[in-house]
Every structure is written in structure tokens, then in C-alpha cells.
Write a structure and sequence with these properties.
Elements: H1 3-19, H2 21-61, H3 79-92
């Protein structure tokens, strides 16, 4: 058992049993409430960030013109790569 879990079990759970069942019941309820609060906060943050991202994407589409240079993925088979290699070999001679 990891030392942090052992410490929690010894100092928290067993000490709570010495005080009685009711304080342990209250501590368990508080722990569950805190856990639920953290989960709700994380889900709210996740939903908010997703909503903000969608608003940003939709807003950016209003200003997109589609002009510019078409993207060409890098490839060793491309014509441009052959030209670069040719020029590199031509300079060595």
C-alpha cells in the first residue's frame, strides 16, 4: 500500500472510527460533496471552453477569403524537391 494511502487510512479512517460512526458519516458526505463539486467544475469548464472554441471558429469563417498559395504537403517525389537536389549538385561541380 502506498505511504500516502496508508497515512490516509491510519489517520483519517481509523481515527474517524474512534470518534464514532456519525463523524465518519459526515466526513464521507463532505468528501463526496467535494468530489462532486470538483467534477461539476471541471465539466463546466470543459463545456465553456468548447463553446468558446466553437464561437471562435464560426467567427473566423466570416473573414476567410480563400486567397493565397495552395498548401502542398512535403514529398520527396515532388517536382520542387528534384529542382532543389539538381541545384545542390550543380553547385558542387
Amino acid at each position: 500500500m502506498p505511504s500516502s494511502l496508508k497515512c490516509f487510512f491510519d489517520k483519517g479512517f481509523l481515527a474517524g472510527l474512534e470518534l464514532g460512526v456519525f463523524p465518519l458519516f459526515l466526513a464521507t458526505g463532505a468528501f463526496m460533496g467535494l468530489t462532486l463539486g470538483v467534477l461539476l467544475a471541471m465539466e463546466t469548464l470543459s463545456a465553456t471552453l468548447h463553446d468558446v472554441r466553437l464561437h471562435w471558429v464560426e467567427w473566423q469563417n466570416k473573414f476567410f477569403d480563400g486567397k493565397g498559395v495552395k498548401f502542398e504537403p512535403f514529398s520527396f517525389d515532388s517536382k520542387r524537391m528534384d529542382e532543389i537536389e539538381f541545384k545542390a549538385f550543380a553547385k558542387k561541380d
